[in-house]
Amino acid sequence: xxxxxxxxxxxxxxxxxxxxxxxxxxxxxxxxxxxxxxxxxxxxxxxxxxxxxxxxxxxxxxxxxxxxxxxxxxxxxxxxxxxxxxxxxxxxxxxxxxxxxxxxxxxxxxxxxxxxxxxxx
Length: 121
Fold this sequence. Notes:
Blueprint: E1 8-11, H1 19-26, E2 33-36, H2 50-60, E3 66-70, H3 74-77, E4 89-93, H4 103-118
Parallel strand pairs: 1-2, 2-3, 3-4
């Protein structure tokens, strides 16, 4: 690429069959890396369990600058108590793939994200 993107996002839930190859190649990227492994209810592929998504995030954590975890998965991700995650910036996301949530729901999600932030994800 002549001009690389600002960030590469790796959707680990979509890359299950390529993990070993991906891990060998990811270190050559000169652009910050964002990793995520989506919950099936929020568009995640391969119907991965919380434990499997956590394993994927922890495996690729050393290569990442950013980690995107859904609000619903913050506790099960194990990143709150993981010392290796401290060097990463965290993105806490929420996805409703069926409709745009109403303002009340969005405000509630915002409050929940702020509460997680106070717990120092």
